[in-house]
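User: Can you write out an input/output pair for a complex, sequences first and structure second?

Assistant: Here is one pair. Inputs:
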Amino acid sequence: MTSTSMLGITVLIDWMQRYADKITEHEPLLTALDAEIGDADHGINMQRGFEEVRMRLVHERTDDLGAFFKSVGMTLLSKVGGASGPLYGTLFLRMGMVAAGKRTLTPTEFASAVAAGVEGIRQRGSARPGDKTMVDALTPAIIALHQALDDGATLCAALQAAAIAGEAGMKATIPMQAYKGRASYLGPRSIGHQDPGATSAFLLIQSAAESICAAEAHDS
Amino acid sequence: MKKLINNPTLVVEEALAGMAHAYPHLLRVNFCPNYVVRADAPQRGKVAVIAGGGSGHEPMHSGYVGVGMLDAACPGPIFTSPTPDQILAAAAAVDGGAGLLFIVKNYTGDVMNFAIAAEECQLAGVPVETVLIHDDVAVEDSLYTAGRRGVGVTVLAEKICGAAAEAGAPLSEVAAIGRKVSEQGRSMGVALTSCIVPAVGRPTFTLPEDEMEIGIGIHGEPGRQRVALQSADEITEMLATTIFDDLPFTRGSRVIALVNGMGGTPLMELFIIFRRLAELCEERDITISRNLIGNYITALEMAGCSLTLLAVDDELLHWWDAPVHTPALHW
Ligand SMILES: Nc1ncnc2c1ncn2[C@@H]1O[C@H](COP(=O)(O)OP(=O)(O)OP(=O)(O)O)[C@@H](O)[C@H]1O
Ligand SMILES: [Mg+2]
């Protein structure tokens, strides 16, 4: 393993900044999707949370990746609200536990951290794949990520594969009936709409791929 | 969007500031994090009753802070649950050493945020009990779904638990009373128009002039079914029968009946609804022991109403009748 394939704080900050940009850009879409099967606040919630993350990043001094993820998680817990606040908050808090005390992560360690985060989401919200939630984008993304790394891909390529799988998972929520979250109140009427949380989750994986691929391109 | 507001992003804070000016004898408002506590908090040796949820349902919950009801309310942004740090700050402000009762409406966001706060309190050695309100019969109940939404019964549970706590009942007893209310109450609502979330600026859904949405929640989320508009009597029959059938309110039973306006419906129409509800109850030999008619749990400017029936016994009626001094309920 070359040192350039190690992730440090810089690339993770870039990931959060890109994601905050993407959330701002897609806020109307996320809110519109939530208006169809929820309560029209998902984009607003996520933007409130990630604007705060962005503001705190400016002052970020730590190079302990565990502390960094924990701080992102706590910010989301206190700023996003709704269902997605505790869920995305839990994702980053769990990533922080895996990364505790580390200044760099190997691709495998990064993948394990994300997997632990997704497991945290599944525990906190008790949603299973097929329930039409963010879990439907995150679960196939994690599987693709591990698979690609096992096949010897770079983290950039593996995350690109994860983003493709996540996007497919996001689109697969369209024909699903919701069994968790607000959308479940609609019963069969939730069918035919893309889940807002699955959409923001896909964007998270996509931003990770962009940040890490940009860093790899820069290093080589 | 036509609203009496200054800035869509400040509606919650400016409304809270207004409440602070209006009711200094009843409550205090804290900003950042936002919470409302009774003026004389904390009450030593008393169970603190805490509720919270998204804003936009006024007077719930902040309007129920005061003597004999809530010790604290945690208002989230419009239709979005409060956060754990906010709940913890409110809890710290009202903790009187006898434990905390969280009254939580069954929405994924509320449940998870209050659960995280409860875990933190317990880690810090503060006993917490949670009463979950899930009374909306329009939603199918199942182990595999998010379960029923919490709506009108929340108001009744806050009043009744608040009275028991005020009288000095221990945490386990206040929680048991709350669970009894939760088990014995059912609600259902109908919307005639949508609401407009200030930050969004457009109606959350559109409903043609001649249609209504049955089984609506309190956030402008679509209901189960959209049907042709009917008369007040027909609507009352449909809502009441669904409730009667879900919880067998047997002959001879007594109830507290809440006819609740969603924010944009005149009181006059609520009385028309109550008139038919009273007849339907009489036909079934159900006694409406107490009633509450008005806007108690709303969805911004939505037009429509919800019915809530709570089966009561002498114990629940006793707590219902106990004195209460809050901005929205007082006797
Ligand atoms: N139990 C759950 N497990 C995993 N994801 C969930 C769960 N419930 C909801 N979600 C996700 O959260 C998204 C909605 O997030 P949003 O920010 O709109 O919160 P909300 O549902 O409006 O919260 P609130 O309960 O405060 O209204 C859904 O699209 C779904 O992907
Ligand atoms: Mg929502």
